[in-house]
Amino acid sequence: MTNQNVVVSDANMAVAVAVSGSSIFNTAAQKPPPAPGTYITLSKKKFLQNLDINSGARINAWVDSMRASSPTHIKSDDQLPWTMQHPSALDLFEEISSASKGKQIVMFLDYDGTLSPIVDDPDRAFMSESMRATVRKLARYFPTAIVSGRCRDKVYNFVRLAELYYAGSHGMDIKGPSKGCKYKDAQAVLFQPASDYLPMIDEVYKALLEVTKDTPGAKVENNKFCVSVHFRRVDEEEWTELAKRVGLVLEGYPSLRLTQGRKVLEIRPTIKWDKGKALEFLLESLGYANCADVFPIYIGDDRTDEDAFKVLRERGQGFGILVSRTPKDTNASYSLQEPSEVMAFLRRLVEWKRLSLRRQFRMRRRLEEIKITI
To answer: Are 90 and 347 in contact, with CB atoms under 8 Å apart?
Structure first.
């Protein structure tokens, strides 16, 4: 594919984006694409006209999806059927613990909206010290992985627990614990299936910075193997325009695709890899690929977590738990409303395991005493 650079000149606006020879620009499509490094100068008016041409139906679908990811308050009466299908994991903790009895629990946790609250500024999505302490205790008893759309290094800086597995960029950047792990070959886990896309992702990141810089509230985040365009602080009236600008950039990169998260547009490689694939990869790395006595639990709040929930349903092993205050279409089996409930659930899980191990220890001692007496 031959790329060309497009510069939009205006007193208040200068946009540089990469587009292919088959881009939305009709004149460019009719002529041979210029050599790399060639610039086409457009007025702001012409630039906006080209935005209007850009796949209107697709943009409308994106905006509808953006609205769907931002549900309005739903009356409690409307939640009854949904909560019956996806009951509270806290209320039915005994059901979950009973199903996992005699099996190795493996924990998978999303970060934003699961371990930390959703905040306007994604760079300030800090987890509490009490949540960090809870996750640290959890990892003592169960292999534990953080599976996030964030860059792996960034989510590690938020969590700061070296004994965990980290799967960043929606599972496209996986690394095992760096210390204190008792699981076989854990430190050897390092997987990056989209390494060839790194230069392209960097290009797209820079282009998106340019086309969104005069959209108030928009924030572009480079997550190494994917790029996120956050619109949590963007006025809803600006969403269509923002989607058009993102679409303009993507026209030049057919090997990238756009997916939707909670008030975020995410640009990723088109490879068949997602959080569900990451879950399967980690289970295989731990030696549980075809194991009947493994019990994966995945907790997440976003649309991207549905890939993992679906994998668990198809495997018939473990459970998915959706973190949401409002009803959503989901493959999860249970629900929790917010990070504080996630912490309460994890604490109950740790306490249940601790008491279970104590009972096993007492039982072994009693059997040993009986053998000595005999």
So the answer is: no
**What six digits make up the tokens of 174?**
């996986």
- Active site annotation includes 110: yes
**Are 171 and 266 in contact, with CB atoms under 8 Å apart?**
no
> Binning pLDDT at 50, 70 and 90, where does residue 260 land?
confident
Asked if 146 and 109 touch (Cβ cutoff 8 Å), the reply is: yes
368-to-12, 334, 359, 363 alpha-carbon distances in Å: 81, 41, 14, 9
Q: Helices 275-285 and 306-315, interaxial angle, to 10°?
A: 50
Q: How far apart are alpha carbons 204 and 182 in whole angstroms?
A: 40
Q: What is the DSSP letter of 194?
A: T
**What would the two tokens of residue 238 be?**
């600006």
Structure tokens at 252: 């030049």
Going by C-alpha positions, the residue among 142, 232, 122 that lies closest to residue 183 is: 142
Q: pLDDT digit string (tens) for 276-334?
A: 999 999 999 999 988 999 999 999 999 999 999 999 999 999 999 999 998 989 999 99
Q: Which of 91, 110, 235, 305 is catalytic?
A: 110
**What is the predicted pLDDT for the residue at 32?**
34
- Res 179: pLDDT: 66
d(CA 139, CA 69): 31
Q: How far apart are CA 275 and CA 311, in angstroms?
A: 9
Print burial letters for 25-55: b (CB count within 10 Å at least 16), e (below 16): beebeeeebeeeeeeeebeeeebeebbeebe
CB 184 within 8 A of CB 287: yes
Residue with tokens 């292999």: 143
Categorize the per-residue pLDDT at 190 as very low, low, confident or very high, splitting at 50, 70 and 90.
Answer: confident
